[in-house]
Amino acid sequence: MTSGHRTTPPPVSTGEHTSHSNTGRTTMAGNTVTVTDASFATDVLGSDKPVLVDFWAEWCGPCKMVAPVLEEIASEHGEKLTIAKLNIDENPQIARDYQVMSIPTMTVFQGGKPVKSIIGAKPKGAILNDLADYI
């Protein structure tokens, strides 16, 4: 017999435009790409241009604050830099492999290797400054 209590918290509206696929996964509308444990080697390590991977989770408030900033950067600098999002709850292996201990963590991969990490939510100007060598 169930008590009628939810085992997961209700979704929180952040005002961002999202769409739900038939798998229940939420994807951001826009210019970022979603990567998974399975696609990481091809989409990130095999990329011809630098890739900023945003390690995030649905329950992470600061991650939701930085998401629209990353969308803007992807829109403005997409020809030089790919911005990819990896949900650490759905794809824990890559986060473990790269020892992501806190989120949001944004790691730049170039030539198949991590070359820079940005930890924590920052304003757009600070992120652009951190990415100056890649955009």
Write the SSE topology.
Layout: E1 18-20, E2 26-28, E3 33-34, H1 40-45, E4 51-56, H2 61-77, E5 82-87, H3 92-97, E6 105-110, E7 113-119, H4 124-130
Parallel strand pairs: 3-5, 4-5
Antiparallel strand pairs: 1-2, 4-6, 6-7
If you had to describe this structure to a student in words, what would you say it looks like?
There is one protein chain. The chain has 135 residues and is of the alpha/beta class. It has helices at residues 40-45, 61-77, 92-97, 124-130; strands spanning 18-20, 26-28, 33-34, 51-56, 82-87, 105-110, 113-119. The strands form two sheets. Strands 3-5-4-6-7 form a five-stranded mixed beta sheet, covered by helices on one side.
Total helical elements: 4
| Helix-strand topology string | EEEHEHEHEEH
The low-pLDDT segments are 1-29
Percent in strands: 15-25%
Query: Count the strands?
Result: 7
Helix content: 25-40%
Q: What does the main sheet amount to?
A: 5 strands, mixed
| Radius of gyration over all CA atoms, rounded | 15 Å
Within the largest sheet, what's the order of strands?
3-5-4-6-7
Structural class label:
alpha/beta
Shape: globular
The CA-CA distance between the termini, in Å, is 57 Å
Give average pLDDT, whole number.
83
